[in-house]
Structures are given as structure tokens and as C-alpha cells.
Amino acid sequence: VDFPFLVLLVSGGHCLLALVKNVADFYLLGTTIDDAPGEAFDK
Questions:
Q1: What is the pLDDT of residues 1-43, one digit of tens each?
Q2: Which residues does 17 contact at the CB level (< 8 Å), separation at least 6?
Q3: What 8-state DSSP symbol labels residue 38?
Q4: What's the pTM?
Q5: What range(s) does the Gcp-like domain occupy (predicted)?
């Protein structure tokens, strides 16, 4: 994968959107505040 790229990480307990400039340099654009994505399955 070539840099820079946009990544959306979704797991049962966390979710984040980040811009990755290189291996050691990334900028978080957004994260979950109160509800985890996994809670959608619980309801």
C-alpha cells in the first residue's frame, strides 16, 4: 500500500478513522465517543 492512505478500523469495541502519512506518522480524524460498533448486535 502506498502512503498516504485513509484507514477505517472497526472492531467490536473500538472504531477510528485515520489518515496515515507513513509508518510512524498518522492523524486521527475521528473515533467513537460513547457507543461501540459491537453494541448494535446487542440491541
A1: 899 999 999 887 788 999 999 999 999 999 887 777 777 776 5
A2: 6, 7, 8, 9, 28, 29, 30, 31
A3: T
A4: 0.72
A5: 2-43
User: What DSSP state is assigned to residue 26?
Assistant: E
The Cβ-side half-sphere exposure at 37, using a 13 Å CA radius, reads 10
16, three cell numbers: 477510528
CA 2 to chain CA mean position, Å:
18
**Cell numbers given for 27:** 492523524
CB–CB of 18/27 below 8 Å?
yes
